[in-house]
Each structure stands twice: as C-alpha cells, then as structure tokens.
C-alpha cells in the first residue's frame, strides 16, 4: 500500500493536482497486475517521503484512468513521468533503481 505521501491521481483530478501544481510532480503510471510496478512501489513510497514538500509524488492506475496515460503516450508500465510547470521534463519506462529515480527527480529541483 502506498505511503501517506503518495497521492492518487485520476483522469478527473490530474489537471488540478499535477499540471497546476506549484512544485514538480513525479507520476507513476501503474496497474495492480503489473509485477514490475509492484517492484518499484516501495521506491516510489521512499522518494515520496524523502522529497516531501519539494516534489509531489503520485500514482495513476492505468486500468481505472485510461484517458491520462493515453494523453501522455504511456505504452508500457511502469512509466514514471516528471512534470514541472505543467510540462513533461522526462519520462522513464520500466522498473528503475532508486539512484535513477533520484536523478530523474533532481532534474526538476
């Protein structure tokens, strides 16, 4: 289960929570049946806690929210997208190590 620092983004709240955020946002596109998604979930929780207040971290369930992944060209999961000021700064597909996740986040800080 996601930590309290990990937000749930949906097709309905994505614009407000992500695109209009005043701090960078790390978005994890995932699904319950995805083994690599489960593998990186603890890393997502960890960086959400470590970067609290500096970066908003959240997840989009691609099965429950198909419009948002479609809009961002998400073809494989997990896909992690870094958004700052409403624009995509970077995007990584697959289960990545914590160091790569931190390097991605640091691009926005």
From TrEMBL:
GO cellular component, one term: cytosol
Domain (Thioredoxin) ranges: 1-109
GO biological process: cell redox homeostasis
Disulfide bridge map: 34-37
Lineage top rank: taxon: Bacteria
Alphabetical keyword list: Disulfide bond, Electron transport, Redox-active center, Transport
Any one GO molecular-function label of the UniProt entry: protein-disulfide reductase activity
CDD domains per record: TRX_family
Catalytic residue positions: 34, 37
Annotated site location: Contributes to redox potential value: 35-36
Pfam families (UniProt xref): Thioredoxin (PF00085)
Keyword tRNA processing carried by entry: no
InterPro entries: Thioredoxin, Thioredoxin-like_sf, Thioredoxin_CS, Thioredoxin_domain
Site (Deprotonates C-terminal active site Cys): 28
Family: Belongs to the thioredoxin family.
Protein name listed in UniProt: Thioredoxin
Source species: Geomonas paludis
Gene name, Swiss-Prot/TrEMBL: trxA
């Amino acid at each position: 289960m996601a930590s309290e620092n990990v937000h749930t983004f949906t097709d309905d709240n994505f614009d407000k929570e992500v695109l209009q955020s005043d701090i960078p946002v790390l978005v994890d596109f995932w699904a319950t049946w995805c083994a690599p998604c489960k593998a990186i979930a603890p890393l997502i929780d960890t960086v959400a806690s470590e970067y609290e207040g500096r970066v908003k971290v959240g997840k989009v369930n691609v099965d429950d929210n198909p419009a948002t992944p479609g809009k961002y060209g998400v073809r494989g999961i997990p896909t992690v997208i870094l958004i700052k000021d409403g624009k995509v700064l970077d995007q990584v597909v697959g289960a990545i190590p914590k160091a790569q996740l931190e390097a991605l986040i640091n691009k926005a800080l």
